[in-house]
Amino acid sequence: MNTAIHFRHNAGNIRSLEDFLRAKGGYVGGQREVYFIRALGALPNMSAAVQDLDRQGQALPAYLRLPEALPKLTAPEDTVFYTGAYERWRAGGGLRLRLVCPDPLFPQVLAQATQETLAQYQRTKAGVSETILKNFAVKLWHWTDSLLADILPHWTPQGQVKLVAENVQKEQPYLFFYLLTLLGCDVLLLNTRGDVQGGEALKKLSAPLTLGPYGENPLPGFLPQAPAAVSPAPQPVPTPQPSPARATPTLTIPPHPARVRRGATTPVSAASGGEQEKSFEELAKLASSIVMIAVHGDKGQPIATGSGIMIGRKGFILTNCHVIRGGRSFAVRIEDDETVYPTDEIIKYNADLDLAVLRIQRELQVLPIYDGRKKLVRGQKVVAIGSPLGLFNSVSDGIISGFRQINDVDMIQFTAPISHGSSGGAVLNMAGELIGISTAGFDQGQNINLAVGYENIRLFARGFFGP
Length: 467
Prior knowledge:
22% of the residues lie in helices and 27% in strands. It contains ten helices and 22 strands. It has a seven-stranded antiparallel beta sheet with strand order 14-13-10-11-12-16-15. A six-stranded antiparallel β-barrel has the order 17-18-19-22-21-20. A five-stranded parallel beta sheet has the order 5-6-7-4-8. β11 and β12 form a beta hairpin.
């Protein structure tokens, strides 16, 4: 197999958590130095040490502490996608994930990393069949797509990425993190409860760093710091009020919106602070920052349409994950623009939040995202813009009627009428700022609609929105 990059592991001696952050692997003549460290046991002040690790790490160009439980592959369409990717790769075709990395070297590096990881799996586990290998590769790529959405769009061979994971003891997750080192990431495993399960050959892939005795040692949650360019941290959504009305209705999030269309707008100036209330006529003009997304299948056939919101001047468009689900390519239309903008760039997605970011090759007029200077309240007036039932750039008004938690996601309940096809559209306050993205509705009821709020949008799309 032709090698795109040669990787050399653990060239330096890592004696502390701080050493891991300070280590900088070089990239010279096609050889990349990376670090793969197992920190075993816990320090006496482990919780404070991890918080300090996060604080220092987030001052680096790229740092993530990943959740202990890797995401499960549950959606049938995801299984079909990754299985198809494996079969094409084994047949000699190219390899690509759902997330698109603009660096042309990445697919080759990913293929090389996958091949080496599968080979390690075969060497350390007896009786591995082709089916077992395929299932493992599918997991590897699903985990990569799910956990590195902030990293892959900006990947370069020289980039410094620090990843920290908690209590990785099973063989397959451990090899997943080995694969990430073969993509150029430095990986630190905080194994406070026990070492990796498996033989010495498996453990030799990483370097041990003994911190102290094993124990339960619960670690603090990871709190991402907002980038400096993003204004104040958003206020939390108010606690939902108990009500018999929200206990049992059936929530319908359509697998694809029936029709959603594009929009166009003159952007609101962020300098205004959004304090001045606009007229409905002025708010309706903001429809020019809403786009129509046509979703195409494997053979290029149109399978659905949806809406999106211009959030980044350099082509970044926010939509719902369920709008793009199952699509292989997309065509974006913008109001008062005859050009159709094709793209297959899914920059980032999160199925739990039902959010995704696409990118097109065009400068956009963006909608400002609410900065959380005041809490949203029930009774507050809102305007929704989308394309219900294919009615392009329909504008409707209503109020915030409540705050709900659906599948552990905080959502805004609002009354502005929407229908199937409004998914991915904008929910605005009266200053013309984006406070939510239309996501779902209750079939058994009128004007009971839900939007993912600005707090989750700001966290999900950090680094994309704005000029």
